[in-house]
Design a protein that fits this description.
single chain; alpha/beta; 14 strands; binds 4'-deoxy-4'-aminopyridoxal-5'-phosphate; Class-I_PLP-dep_aminotransf; pyridoxal phosphate; PyrdxlP-dep_Trfase; PyrdxlP-dep_Trfase_major; transferase
């Protein structure tokens, strides 16, 4: 039997990352494949305490429906996070979502008709590409370099395509490349979006995880006409299991997101929102983030230094100043999917980079995550990966 599914499902395939993650559950595998925060840094005991307090002090509220826009004290706390990335806003500008992933899905729902064009960085976050695909757009991947999207290329594409609805960008420590946009490019993006009347979806889960280099404000900081929709999340600065993120946008746009949320799940979990709000009230989140940055920097250093020592010279990789990922470019003749098979045989996993390009190609690239493995595993894993790479090198 085969049921008759909607045409939009034709475009939606199982994510390669999800499939890989299933494989990497085996304990003997050292996995650089996921994007997981370090579990040993989750504030488990603190959350246990605040959870009891929430239930003792406001149990019935915690278990009741709440407003779609979100739990007010949490919205107030979120405005403080926005301040950290250089954006002044009011609680009314915030909608609490189930992770920033929900904000991505709603962006597609709100802006895209079939055949509309989404512009994104090339490469871009696979989870966003997949979320948008449900709305049947076409994708144009805008070429990038070490300073972000190349603005001349973007300008050309905007001039030649009038069906562009939004530009999707991850300006800080991008997933998958680890790259960060320069300030000039952030400003130029706003100018071009204003000129061509397109929205900007700024997806920024890693902005607060800068462990070295100069601080750059979010793209929304430079927004002059209210066309930047900022997606934030507690997943990487706190923990992903509670599934809490947010949209920060101007009133008219935010109202569309509120309507989308009402149709989707009415609201994010009241009790989770109250737990996080209580945690933020009683504990020092800034100190927690500082600690995360310290650990991630150490792991980044270890991964990069081991790659420098173990990888053949032809292999290039990024050295991110924050976030969770580094991006590796192999010689063109080498296919990262074939390498992944060899690597899994040696009990080490990563995500081949080809899947991060909306229109394919670039099969000689791969993404490595350094946040979720301890020091010893990083060194052993990179050594194993180096062996797999060497076995595929041409003389
Ligand atoms: N955007 C990017 C760029 C991500 O890397 C992720 C998670 N890996 C998400 C969005 C989704 O995060 P969440 O839904 O947990 O907030």
């Amino acid at each position: 039997m085969s049921l008759r599914y909607a045409k939009r499902m034709d475009n939606i395939k199982a994510s390669e990352i999800r499939e890989l993650l299933k494989l990497t559950q085996k304990p003997e595998i050292i996995s650089f494949a996921g994007g997981l925060p370090a579990p040993e840094l989750f504030p488990v005991e603190e959350l246990e305490k605040v959870s009891s307090k929430v239930l003792e002090e406001q149990g019935t509220t915690a278990l009741q429906y709440g407003p779609t826009e979100g739990y007010e004290p949490l919205r107030v706390e979120i405005t403080k996070r926005m301040e950290k990335v250089g954006v002044e806003c009011k609680p009314e500008d915030i909608l609490v979502t189930s992770g920033s992933q929900q904000g991505l899905d709603f962006s597609g729902k709100i802006f895209l008709n079939p055949g509309d064009i989404v512009l994104c960085e090339s490469p871009s976050y696979l989870g966003a590409i997949n979320a948008f695909k449900a709305y049947e757009p076409e994708f144009i991947g805008v070429p990038t370099d070490e300073n972000g999207m190349i603005m001349e290329e973007l300008e050309d594409i905007l001039k030649n395509n009038d069906r562009v609805r939004f530009i999707y960008v991850i300006p800080d420590f991008q997933n998958p490349s680890g790259r960060t946009w320069s300030i000039e490019r952030r400003k130029r993006l706003i100018e071009l979006a204003n000129e061509h009347n397109v929205a900007i979806i700024e997806d920024n889960p890693y902005g607060e995880l800068r462990f070295e280099g100069e601080y750059y404000p979010a793209i929304k900081h430079y927004d002059t006409e209210g066309r930047v929709i900022f997606l934030g999340t507690f997943s990487k600065i706190f923990c992903p299991g509670l599934r809490l993120g947010w949209v920060c946008a101007e009133e008219e746009v935010l109202n569309k997101f509120v309507l989308a949320k009402q149709g989707s799940d009415l609201q994010s979990s009241t009790i989770s929102q109250m737990q996080v709000a209580k945690f933020l009230e009683e504990y020092d989140i800034e100190a927690h983030i500082e600690n995360l940055k310290k650990v991630y920097k150490k792991r980044r250093d270890l991964m990069i230094n081991t790659m420098k020592e173990e990888f053949p010279e032809e292999i290039k990789f990024t050295n991110p100043e924050g976030g969770l990922f580094t991006w590796v470019v192999l010689p063109e003749y080498m296919n990262a999917r074939d390498l992944a098979v060899k690597a899994i045989e040696k009990n080490v996993a990563f995500v081949p980079g080809g899947s991060f390009f909306p229109n394919g190609g670039n099969e000689n690239t791969l993404r490595l995550n350094y946040s979720s493995m301890d020091d010893e595993k990083i060194v052993i894993g990179i050594k194993r990966l180096a062996e797999a790479i060497k076995s595929m090198m041409k003389e």
